Amino acid sequence: MSVNRASPTSHSYFAQGLRLHYLDWGNPEAPPLLLVHGNRDHCHNWDWVAQELRDEYHILAPDFRGHGDSERILGGNYNHTGYLYDLAQLIHQQNLAPLKVIAHSLGGSVALRYAGAYPENIEKMIVIEGTGGPGWMYQEVPVHERIRNWVDSTRASAGRSPRRYGSLEDAFERMQAENKHLSESQARHLTAHGSNQNEDGSYSWKFDNQTHVMAPFDLTLDQTQTLWARITAPLLLISGSESQFGQHQKEDITRYFPDARSLVFENAGHWVQHDQLDRFVSEARLFLKDA
């Protein structure tokens, strides 16, 4: 399938004074479906999925703060709570609840927290490799070490300029090398929408460098699982067989949710929605349809 048929409209909304961007795929009379990207990705990561489901749903795909075409935070300090507010504001301002959600990676983690806080707002949710978190959630890392690591990482990030590519072709090659499953057309599409041209003619990725730094404090694993237990909507938890996602999760994660099942896609890495598009759309369509 070609994304040349894509015709979403770009819009802005505000969260904590930041101008944030989202795509609206039209069909406003249909049930709402929110597509939420992962860390250092952007709303156009969902273009292929949106093309397939746009006739059945009113699809919106936001850019988190510091990602895509949304504004950055001055000084960085990105965290799950800020991202959650971004989602909460879009859902509230556009009067989307109750709604269905598909979310990937960081977006999945944030969407699950939203669903735990507002279970009445979620009808169904698909989460692709989004039940993880920073390493210290799974091991005892002393508080002083977390603080020191955060200070060191923030200082290093602040002193590092965004990587520059001599041409869009160079950026494309980096994108394609990052995910062996991407077709050439997918990699070119993601590169074109995920990069900006600098004043000197070079290209850099749109995401803020500070998004590399994880906040030193967050919900604990127990607190996160307490939120998960509040989610009443059916959940489909998807992962890729070739992803390293499962390294911290040896147990059956579905037991922490009232109504969840898991599904592993073979021949897929972290970006299952790209690596196995046809199967993903088929499973999503089947799961999301009303009973």
What does this structure look like?
By secondary structure, this protein is α/β, with parallel strands linked by helices. The protein has one domain: 3-Layer(aba) Sandwich (Rossmann fold), CATH 3.40.50. It is built from nine helices and ten strands. An eight-stranded mixed beta sheet has the order 1-2-4-3-5-6-9-10, sandwiched between helices. Strand 1 and strand 2 form a beta hairpin. Helix 2 crosses helix 3, helix 3 packs across helix 7 and helix 5 packs across helix 6. The two termini are 28 Å apart. The model has no long low-confidence stretch (mean pLDDT 93).
Question: What labels would you give this structure?
Answer:
single chain; 291 residues; alpha/beta; Rossmann fold; eight-stranded mixed β-sheet; two-stranded antiparallel sheet; 9 helices; globular
CATH architecture: 3-Layer(aba) Sandwich
Distance between the termini: 28 Å
| General shape | globular
Structural class: alpha/beta
Order of helices and strands: EEEHEHEHEHHHEEHEEHH
Number of strands: 10
Helix content estimate: 25-40%
- Low-confidence sequence ranges: none
Mean pLDDT: 93
Query: CATH homologous superfamily - what is it?
Result: Alpha/Beta hydrolase fold, catalytic domain
CATH class: Alpha Beta
The total tally of domains equals: 1
Beta-strand content: 15-25%
**How is the biggest beta sheet arranged?**
8 strands, mixed
CATH topology: Rossmann fold
Helical stretch tally = 9
User: Strand order of the main beta sheet, please?
Assistant: 1-2-4-3-5-6-9-10
Radius of gyration using CA atoms only: 18 Å
